[in-house]
Design brief:
By secondary structure, the protein is of the alpha+beta class. Helix content is 26%, strand content 25%. Strands 5, 6, 7, 9, 10, 11, 12, 13, 14, 15, 16, 17 and 18 form a 13-stranded antiparallel beta sheet that branches. The longest helix is centred in the first third of the chain and has 18 residues, at 12-29.
């Protein structure tokens, strides 16, 4: 039917792969003991959602399952409230559950629960669904080792540069202490988060130190989908703000216009180093929050970044955090060392 997304057939092999990867997440990342309390909440609005629910059921055979359309919001929230601290909640969502709780994952963390969250699965259509499943693989040695190595290199780097295939350079001064999203919760208060994972992120200590040029080959549009312009868009940055754009598109112009309307100018903030090797410039997905894990670099447009406070911003006045993905074929240079070569991190 016109307007209906097409979903590829998910094979037995895909289901087996999902079970394997989900078991890795539960056992190695979350470190949830066998037989410990757990609850699986899911919908059936796209093929990926029940497939993942089945995979988690195999990993957590003791866990009750709630299909969201068969119960009231009040019943779901009551089931959450009845769980003991240390229990695991798995949220599998074709879009995003609309329960009474604001920022449900935050509320569950406050209750002392572990949380695994999958969102916007309905955006993974055609070949994207198998890519999403592949991105769930949890290689603890790779994620933790590479993440911690990049974190250490960021801490010691006097400056950073992103170099495109065309030779354009985006310059950074010293960077903030990096934060990790690598599935290692052993030193954290909250256990879990949104999957797939794989990211090291930071930003310039002095945002006005950022200057130069970079090519954007994917950006998050106003519907939170990945937008792939036919020709990469060049952004020119001075004193941490976008001051000019070349080869833009109406969709990218709309993003910039929305930011400027509310925040006055377009700041460049997050410097995200993605680690997930299932995603690259060819193997993509439509959901911007999933694709930001790709093995590459994304930046954020807009003044909003909840992980770092800057004196020029009041949090209540910051609204936008739009991910854009940049060409780094010439490397990611921390100090005098290129840590990104031939599409992989070298640390």
């Amino acid at each position: 039917m016109s307007g209906t997304p097409y979903y590829c057939e998910l094979s037995t092999e895909h289901r087996q792969q999902a079970q394997h990867h989900v078991a890795q997440i539960v056992e190695q990342a979350i470190e949830h003991p066998p037989g410990a309390p757990a609850l699986i909440v899911f919908d059936t609005e796209c093929p990926l959602a029940p497939l993942l629910a089945d995979a988690y059921q195999a990993a957590l055979p003791q866990a009750p399952r709630l299909e969201i359309s068969t119960v009231s919001n009040e019943e779901v929230l009551a089931r959450f409230a009845a769980l003991p601290a240390g229990a695991l909640v798995v949220l599998i969502q074709s879009t995003h559950f609309r329960l009474d709780a604001y920022r449900l994952r935050v509320q569950l963390f406050a209750q002392g629960l572990k949380v695994i969250e999958h969102v916007h699965l309905a955006r993974m259509i055609n070949a994207e669904a198998p890519r999403y499943i592949a991105a769930l693989a949890y290689d603890a040695d790779y994620y933790r080792g590479t993440g911690q190595a990049l974190q250490a290199r960021i801490a010691s780097a006097p400056h950073a540069r992103l170099i495109s295939a065309r030779g354009d350079v985006l310059h950074y001064g010293p960077l903030e202490p990096a934060k990790l999203n690598v599935g290692d919760y052993r030193q954290l208060n909250n256990i879990g988060g949104q999957f797939p994972i794989g990211e090291v992120f930071t930003e310039a200590i002095d945002l006005t130190s950022v200057h130069g040029r970079a090519q954007v080959y994917v950006f998050g549009d106003t519907t939170f989908h990945c937008n792939f312009p036919a020709t990469p868009i060049t952004i020119e940055v001075a004193a941490g703000r976008i001051v000019a754009v070349e080869d833009s598109t109406p969709e990218f112009d709309a993003v910039l216009a929305r930011i400027r309307e509310v925040e006055g100018e377009v700041w460049l903030r997050e410097l995200g180093l993605g680690l997930n090797r299932a995603f690259d410039r060819e193997n993509t997905v439509s959901d911007i929050g999933t694709y930001e894990r790709l093995c590459g670099v994304h930046l954020s447009l807009g003044a909003k970044h909840g992980s770092y406070n800057k004196p020029q911003f009041k949090r209540k006045d910051t609204r936008f955090h739009i991910d854009v993905f940049v060409d780094i074929a010439g490397g990611v240079w921390l100090g005098e060392d290129n840590l990104y070569q031939q599409g992989r991190w070298v640390v």
